[in-house]
Every structure is written in C-alpha cells, then in structure tokens.
Amino acid sequence: MRAADAVSSTTGYLLLKLAALAEARMEQTLRPFRLRGRTLRVLAFVDGGEVSQRDLCRQTGLDRTTMVAVIDELERDGYVWRDRSASDRRKQVIRITDDGRRALGEALAAVRRAEEDFLAPLDPDGRRRLHGVLSALYAAHDPRCQTADADV
Hints:
This protein is mostly helical and 152 residues long. Helix content is 63%, strand content 8%. It has helices at residues 3-8, 11-30, 37-46, 53-60, 64-76, 98-118, 124-141; strands at 51-52, 80-84, 92-96. Strand 2 and strand 3 (92-96) form a beta hairpin. The two termini are 33 Å apart.
C-alpha cells in the first residue's frame, strides 16, 4: 500500500476532510447573517440572558483575546451590547439585542437546512448513529463536553 493511500484511508483523515467541508458550508450559510461559526456560538450563549465575558469564555472554550474580538464584531453588527455589571463594576456583561435575537433565529434555521443537505446521503437512522458516535467521541476527548446524547 502506498503511503498516501495509507494516510487517506484513516478515519482521522476522513474526519479532518469532512470537518473542513462542513466548516466551509457553515461559514457560507452564515455569511448572509454577518455571522461566523464562533460568533454564532457566542450569540447563542448570550441569548440565554445577561452573561459576563468571563463566563462566555468558560462556556464556549474561547480565550479572552478571541472573545473580545468576537464581542466587538457582534457589537459592531448591532447583535449584542456590552455594559458594566450593576453588581460588580469590574465585570463586563453582554446582552443580546432584538436584531441579534432575530439574526440568531434566522441563522439557526439556515444552519439546520444546511446540515440536512450536508447529511442527505445518510438515512435518518444513519444520521442519528453518526451524531451519537461523534457526541460520544467528543465527550470522551473533551471533558468540557457533556452532551445528553453522548451514550451510543
């Protein structure tokens, strides 16, 4: 077996290639909403109510520098606003705006449609199995990920 065939036939290689394709599809899907994968993730966490930048870093896994850039971008687009906490003036809190909530809802609907299209070669049972296997692997390798459907 040639070395190139040995590499390209590994599960890890297939996962990397599929991840790149999925990411490109996600970014293309989010572009009309002036969002990207990481800005969508942060906006979704902010939709739960007022949240501090520090908590957002912990919840999303983004570092502080990246989080500031993401919040700057979301604020510039009118999707969130940041303010000092009333209870702790040292803390920055982030709130979603009405435009942010609307964009989030529309973007999530578009992402669901794009995912359905991306996974169209699989039947519904295959999609559920794939999701379960990926969730289990993610939970096993990243202690921050504890999904309800991680058991396969």
